[in-house]
Amino acid sequence: MGVRSKVKFGADCFSQHTDWPSYLAAMKRAEDLGYDSLWSPDHLIPTPPGADPEGPILEPYMCLAGVAATTSKATLGLLVSPISLRQPALLAKTITALDHISGGRAVLGLGAGWHEEEHRQYGFEFGSGFGERLDWLRQALPVVRGMLAGTRPSSVGDRYHIREAVNSPPPVQEHLPILIGGTGPKVTLRLVAEYGDMCNLIGSPDQVAGAEARLVEHCEAVDRDPQEIERTVAIRQPVIRDSQQEADRALNEIFAHNNSEPWSRDMVGTPQDLVERCAPYVEMGHRHLIFQFLSPFDQETMERLAREVRPGLEELTVRSSRAAQV
Known about the structure:
Blueprint: E1 8-13, H1 20-32, E2 37-40, H2 60-70, E3 75-78, E4 81-82, H3 88-102, E5 108-111, H4 116-122, H5 130-149, E6 178-181, H6 188-195, E7 198-202, H7 205-221, E8 230-235, E9 239-240, H8 244-257, E10 268-269, H9 271-283, E11 288-293, H10 299-325
Parallel strand pairs: 1-2, 1-11, 2-3, 4-5, 5-6, 6-7, 7-8, 8-11, 9-10
Helix pairs in contact: 1-2, 2-3, 3-5, 6-7, 9-10
């Protein structure tokens, strides 16, 4: 049996502080470079917190539909849609349309939401706190899963009033995957175990390892094989240059363009630096890394990740697999 070495890369391109031609070009470039998945955050005002709340941003589902129509290989999804912004029955119809536009490449990303200011601006309920929004997510997931499977579900609970919702035509995919984002140990990861086909984790290697352990516990509790769930890891804005000084300068320029301070410098450096910093995630078995790219979409970093960092990580998996077989 051959040694499994594949490491999947995703590009998460933000639709803020950019124009449509630049955004589309970045997504198409990522696919041309061999990125396996294409994503956008689902926000209506720029992020992270502290960014200019009046800055320009394009509505992400419309953007993703345009990307779907002009690409052919990579999977597509939003990372992730806050259930507080998206009514679940309409969301199921939306992702089904995206699946048709893309020829069966859509992934439905869902989460509880966290950005209070966008809710205030657009008039969406934010709830009493994260716990209440998680309860909304809990009520929404059976509806979405049922509609995608064609079972005409009705909602249970006091949040939604959905009755035998029909989703016709069905998705192109026989089983359109649901990705749930977050590392909440009690509720979020339990929902992943119950409903998720994919789970997007974020944090340091130690934090991700802790979330992984809790997810396995939840899978055991609901009698589910944890290997059925694909783990993805979100990697904050990477920057690759030939020196640390050059990389730091480029990072500062990217965030200045977005009227924000850098939220992380963890993935900034030379190609070898990035291999070493991504290695712990790959070594723990997470083989789908999703890199965030803010406008103006650093082409050099996107290319060097694909051509220099990914081969280094794949060689690491080969060595690890051979060592385990000895």
